[in-house]
């Protein structure tokens, strides 16, 4: 390692201060954040970041799906950029670090290079991907999917939130461009820093996760139509109650997940009945199912079990409907050279590391389809995320940013 890179460190205090300042945008009473995609609070967060980045010498641009890019010039503007970043949008009851850490760690890399007067050969670009969470608009990792060519722009523009507001509506409201008339910039490599969102690093006493890939995952919506009826006079055997399907699906699917090993994941995250009256048998039931597994065969087995169980229960209880795929992200393996850059940076800093596969989906799942990619994880308290109590230590966050700095510097050197 060169003399320059062997001494590179971020300003951990500045990183922490910026994280706490960003956390005020959309702050919740329970200590978390609610900064959902393309909302006014999301725009406030973007404006805060943009101000910091422009003060650090970066040039900003926004694409037709609402992704924000902040570029730091390199010695040779003709070379492809080296990218980093994550997302600023949160869950409705999200935390201070999910996504935003990767964005602000990237900004801290830029500012730390500025402090040293270092200009990299390749330009650096900080990406803020739009609607990564998929909590407001039901398409997780939406912005990066469009950027990578895995989702059509018109299709993404048409996605609506539960109030019927479309992505296009909100992009227009904020006067973002709607035409896809700018080609994707050439990118040499991309790294994303993130809290782990799981307990492995903390439990094993490791400071850095060298992420080698991401497991298979998908999300279904199950829609069931029965018959509304009075809860009192209607005998149980005469009801067409869609909730009975859910009652049969849950134990079967939890049992199937258990049988497929500790890596299997089955989650019902949203349940809605209509008309939603306590003394009426529902005529409509909707629920979402999230399925994940790192092994392709077991992942497919869990998906098939869902279809078989839902179909059998529908026939048994004389209701109509089925499961429809809302979103799927096949498992990925990250680029070996990018993973090596992260590994070498971690070792040069003397941090204990764990090589691991991510259990959560990230924008890097899409980015890696077109660009060599890897990720860096740091521990979060109790492995807790998508929760207002989400927490990470300043020391671990600084360590992850140090790894990001050294790895990016290596990749951005011609």
Give the topology, please.
Layout lengths: L11 H12 L16 H16 L3 E4 L5 E5 L8 E6 L13 H17 L7 E5 L13 H6 L5 H5 L9 H7 L13 E9 L4 H5 L3 E7 L1 E10 L3 E2 L12 H17 L5 E10 L5 E2 L2 E10 L2 H22 L2 E10 L2 E2 L2 H14 L3 E6 L5 H4 L5 E6 L15 H18 L3
Parallel strand pairs: 3-4, 3-5, 5-15, 6-14
Antiparallel strand pairs: 1-2, 2-4, 6-13, 6-15, 7-11, 7-12, 8-10, 9-11
Helix pairs in contact: 1-3, 1-12, 3-12, 8-9, 10-12
Give a brief outline of the structure.
This protein is α/β, with parallel strands linked by helices and 414 residues long. Helix content is 35%, strand content 23%.
Model description:
- By secondary structure, the chain is of the alpha/beta class.
- The protein has twelve helices and 15 strands.
- It has helices at 12-23, 40-55, 100-116, 142-147, 153-157, 167-173, 200-204, 243-259, 296-317, 336-349, 364-367, 394-411; strands spanning 59-62, 68-72, 81-86, 124-128, 187-195, 208-214, 216-225, 229-230, 265-274, 280-281, 284-293, 320-329, 332-333, 353-358, 373-378.
- The strands form three sheets. Strands 1, 2, 3, 4, 5, 6, 13, 14 and 15 form a nine-stranded mixed sheet that branches.
- Strand 3, helix 3 and strand 4 (124-128) form a beta-alpha-beta unit.
- It is globular and about 80 Å long.
- The chain starts with 11 loop residues before the first helix and ends with a helix.
- The mean pLDDT is 96.
């Amino acid at each position: 390692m060169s003399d320059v890179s062997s001494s590179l460190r971020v300003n951990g205090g500045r990183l922490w201060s910026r994280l706490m300042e960003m956390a005020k945008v959309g702050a919740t009473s329970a200590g978390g954040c609610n900064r959902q995609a393309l909302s006014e609070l999301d725009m406030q967060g973007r404006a805060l970041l943009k101000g910091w980045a422009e003060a650090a010498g970066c040039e900003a641009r926004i694409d037709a799906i609402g992704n924000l890019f902040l570029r730091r010039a390199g010695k040779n503007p003709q070379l492809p950029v080296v990218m980093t970043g994550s997302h600023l949008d949160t869950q409705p009851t999200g935390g201070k670090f999910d996504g935003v850490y990767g964005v602000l760690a990237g900004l801290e890399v830029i500012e730390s290079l500025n402090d040293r007067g270092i200009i990299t050969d390749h330009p650096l670009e900080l990406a803020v991907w739009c609607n990564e969470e998929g909590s407001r608009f039901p398409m997780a990792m939406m912005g990066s999917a469009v950027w990578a060519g895995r989702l059509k722009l018109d299709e993404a523009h048409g996605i609506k939130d539960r109030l019927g507001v479309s992505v296009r509506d909100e992009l227009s409201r904020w006067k973002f461009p709607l035409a896809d008339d700018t080609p994707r910039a050439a990118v040499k490599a991309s790294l994303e820093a993130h809290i782990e969102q799981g307990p492995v690093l903390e439990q094993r006493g490791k400071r850095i996760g060298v992420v080698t890939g991401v497991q298979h995952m998908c999300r279904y919506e199950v829609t069931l139509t029965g018959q509304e009826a009075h809860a009192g006079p209607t005998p149980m055997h005469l009801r067409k109650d869609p909730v009975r399907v859910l009652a049969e699906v849950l134990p079967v699917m939890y049992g199937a997940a258990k049988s497929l090993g500790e890596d299997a994941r089955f989650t019902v995250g949203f349940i809605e009945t209509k008309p939603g009256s306590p003394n009426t048998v529902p005529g409509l039931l909707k629920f979402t199912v999230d399925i994940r597994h790192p092994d392709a065969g077991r992942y497919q087995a869990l998906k098939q079990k869902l279809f078989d169980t839902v179909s059998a229960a529908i026939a048994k209880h004389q209701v109509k409907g089925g499961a429809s795929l809302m979103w799927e992200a096949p498992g990925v393996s990250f680029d070996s050279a990018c993973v090596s850059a992260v590994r070498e940076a971690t070792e040069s800093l003397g941090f204990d590391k764990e090589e691991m596969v991510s259990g959560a989906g990230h924008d890097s799942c899409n980015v890696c389809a077109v660009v060599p990619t890897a990720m860096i994880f740091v521990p979060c308290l109790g492995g807790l995320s998508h929760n207002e109590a989400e927490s990470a230590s300043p020391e671990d966050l600084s360590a992850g940013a140090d790894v990001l700095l050294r790895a990016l510097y290596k990749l951005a050197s011609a």
